[in-house]
Write a structure and sequence with these properties.
Number of strands: 4
Helix content: over 70%
Radius of gyration: 23 Å
Number of helices: 15
Oligomer: single chain
Strand order of the largest sheet: 2-3-1-4
Organism: Kangiella marina
Structural class: mainly alpha
Strand content: 5-15%
Membrane topology: Multi-pass membrane protein
Subcellular location: Cell membrane
Shape: globular
Pfam families: MFS_1
Keywords: Cell membrane, Membrane, Transmembrane, Transmembrane helix, Transport
């Protein structure tokens, strides 16, 4: 069946949420090539403290993703996004006004405390149909990749003009633009008139972790972000050893990102058509393993680097799109923020540990040892995906309730969520309807009819 296009709301949501991610990540990525060098001029700076300044952002992100994801389930996505961006701006200003290493560390930690990734992904899921979520996540993931590529060029240039502190002011300005976009462009999520269950954290946690699927997906995203950071601690030096100077790396990365998207999109569309979501994610891990294993060969020709890096980023970008969309499809809106909080915590923890552990072990194990470790992790994650089992075939169902009594919609919502195969239930007392997302392979027609009349 031909894939339907994005609706106007979905397009607006995808573009605006992707731009929020891109504006925020552009500023962060610009720091990567310069913070270690320029940070040495700060009072009290040492190499371990500069490493802490670089990594503490990911640590505070990892700690706060789950609590803020849970909070977005209770008070809504947008308030969490607004607050997170304000905190991020404050952290950027703290770092910008600081001339000591401890001020830089405090600013970076405060930046990370603006942990909005789970809320943004949950809002993207709320604003899209299940069959379109991979496209939405791909646009967000693509915006991060594009921001990374652009940052490799802009970071060194702007830091020469503005210094490290000036770069933080630019980052604050970019985050302020993202805040304006969030407030004025991003559509609203679920309407407040729709009834939501007032679930406790323990109830949400039990539901999200019941079958262990969230831990499999969390492991997968942990591994790909560990590997991403590890690759960028290895590849730049190997490119220089191959005769390509740092100034040439930017166009190599840009070319690779474009080629990887060209390779990734047909794979993702094929998975959607054939309903082979788990298999395509396992294939992506196999592609990453192939790319990492190729680095053992020692080839230096530019064609080799373009092929290897294209394979790596094709696998990475496909997983970056499919993993969060899989989380979103497995868990309804009542649980989605919590689930994506677990997921995002693992993602940022992977980036933090991938950098710090690789930095610590690289002198001891060498490049080959680090590559072998990353290959083992990728194989483990790919194999673990088999435990996901058959993923749901999602369908939307609207049930018109037979009863017009007060709270009938909420009671029907509670009953629906207890039914096998119901992933999401949103009630609307004003319409006397319950909006469901169900797994077609598990839902029983008689269960739906017990609620009322099925529309359509």
């Amino acid at each position: 069946m031909k894939s339907s296009p994005l609706t106007s709301v979905e397009r607006r949501s995808a573009v605006s949420l992707a731009s929020i991610f891109a504006l925020r990540m552009l500023g962060l990525f610009m720091l990567l090539p310069v913070i270690r060098i320029l940070g040495e001029d700060l009072e009290g700076a040492t190499l371990p403290l500069l490493g802490l300044a670089l990594g503490i952002y990911g640590l505070s992100q990892a700690i706060l993703q789950l609590p803020l994801g849970l909070l977005s389930d209770k008070i809504g996505r947008k308030p969490v996004i607004y607050g997170g961006l304000v905190v991020f701006i404050a952290g950027s200003l703290v770092a910008g006004f600081s001339d000591t290493i401890w001020g830089l560390i405090a600013g970076r930690a405060l930046q990370g405390a603006g942990a909005i990734a789970s809320a943004v992904m949950a809002l993207a899921a709320d604003l899209s149909r299940p069959e379109q979520r991979s496209k939405m996540m791909a646009m967000i993931g693509g915006s991060i990749g594009l921001a990374f590529a652009i940052s490799l060029i802009l970071g060194p240039i702007l830091s020469e003009w503005l210094s490290l502190q000036g770069l933080f002011f630019v980052i604050a300005a970019l985050a302020f633009i993202a805040l304006i976009v969030a407030m004025t462009v991003v559509p609203r999520g679920e309407q407040a008139s729709k009834v939501h269950l007032n679930l406790s954290f323990s109830e949400r946690w039990r539901h999200v972790t019941a079958k262990g699927r969230i831990f499999v997906l969390a492991l997968a995203v942990f591994v790909i972000h560990w590997s991403l950071v590890a690759v960028f601690m290895i590849v730049p030096e190997k490119l220089e050893q191959s005769g390509y100077q740092l100034a040439q790396h930017s166009w190599i990365y840009l070319t690779v990102l474009v080629l990887s998207i060209v390779l990734m999109v047909p794979m993702m569309l094929g998975a959607e058509r054939k309903k082979m979501h788990r298999q395509i994610m396992q294939l992506a891990f196999a592609v990453i393993v192939l790319a990492l294993a190729s680095l053992f060969t020692g080839f230096t020709h530019i064609a080799f680097w373009l092929v290897v890096l294209t394979l790596f980023f094709a696998g990475f970008n496909l997983l970056e799109a499919k993993l969060p969309s899989t989380v979103s499809n497995l868990f309804g809106s009542q649980y989605r923020g919590t689930a994506l909080g677990v997921f995002s915590t693992s993602q940022f923890l992977g980036a933090f540990l991938g950098g710090s552990v690789t930095g610590y072990l690289l002198p001891k194990l060498g490049v080959d040892g680090i590559l072998a470790m990353n290959i083992v992790l990728a194989v483990m994650a790919g194999v673990a995906l088999a435990f996901l089992g058959k993923l749901p075939e999602i369908e939307k169902v609207i049930v018109k309730l037979d009863s017009n009594e007060e709270n009938s919609s909420k009671n029907a919502q509670i009953s629906a969520l207890k039914m096998p195969g119901v992933l999401e239930a949103i009630a609307n007392d004003g319409e006397g309807k319950v909006y469901l997302q169900v797994d077609k392979s598990k839902i029983q027609q008689k269960d739906l009819l017990s609620l009322g009349q099925i529309e359509g």
